[in-house]
Amino acid sequence: MAGMEVVHRSVKTNGIEMHVAEQGSGPLVLFLHGFPELWFSWRHQMEFMARHGYRAVAPDLRGYGDTEAPPLPYTSYTVFHIVGDLIGLLDALGEAQAFVVGHDWGAFIAWHLCLFRPDRVRALVSLSIPYQPRSPLYKPVQSWTHAYGNGFYITQFQEPGRAEKAFARYDTLTVVKKFLLINKSDLLVAPPGKEIIDVLEVPSSLPSWITEEELEYYASKFQKSGFTGPLNYYRAFDLNWELTAPWQRAKINVPTKFITGNEDIGFEAYRMRDYVNGAIFKEIVPNLEVSIIDGHHFIQQEKAEQVNDEILSFFKTISPL
């Protein structure tokens, strides 16, 4: 079928060169990956949506894969920078609006795309990370450290170079496996004197949803790019909090479907179940559907067919332009 192959190209946007993968034609679906991932995380969804008449586009986000990583510190990795990259990408693609699908950090960015520029989003599917209102009083890193201690992975990621040094004790493939193959719902907290990368385990055998060759593809890209760009997203958490004060109590009015695995690492450990099923989430995202399915954190890869069906069925309910 014409246009069904994955096409790779580089797009100039917001002062950087962004690598994008594209498949199919029709209404645009923009796929946004998380940590430690790439456009490749959406390989199952891209092929599926292309077969069903959509134009699937998945970039490597700023600092990841074959997209440029600004050498400046975390101050170049705020949600405003990343959303700005995506607005420039939509312009370069010649698209006024897009359906958006985000997972993990990609979901966090997608929520803010809907917050800042709802005019560019037809509908959103968010995987694993719900939108949470900004605390008016407490910076996020301070709150998480108070709740989970200095061994909390986000707290450990704050110091420039610390996590990179710890990661360097392992080969890149092992680092990728330690994160991508998480299958527990435990808190990501290291005991005193340990780094989180030391605590994470590599399973004795691979799960059925990913192959050694696919993991090696991830590793080859991180071997080239390093982890500083992705870690800078975490280092910008408090700066994001400061800069988003004007959006205090703002709602997300874009039609949204939230999908999470019932064994997601954060679903029980961080009390996400109570929040997702509670009134606050539905109040700040009024046009919301929630779907909880069997699975873990990297749900779009682990349960690709079910996630594909959830995405397609939801987008079909959205009125055409």
Automatic annotation (TrEMBL):
It catalyses: an epoxide + H2O = an ethanediol; (24S)-24,25-epoxycucurbitadienol + H2O = (24R)-24,25-dihydroxycucurbitadienol. Pathway: Secondary metabolite biosynthesis; terpenoid biosynthesis. Keywords: Hydrolase. Residues 27-303 form the AB hydrolase-1 domain. It holds the Pfam family Abhydrolase_1. Its EC number is 3.3.2.10. GO terms for molecular function: epoxide hydrolase activity; hydrolase activity. Belongs to the AB hydrolase superfamily. Epoxide hydrolase family. Coiled coil: none annotated. It is an enzyme of class 3 (hydrolase). It comes from Amborella trichopoda. This is soluble epoxide hydrolase.
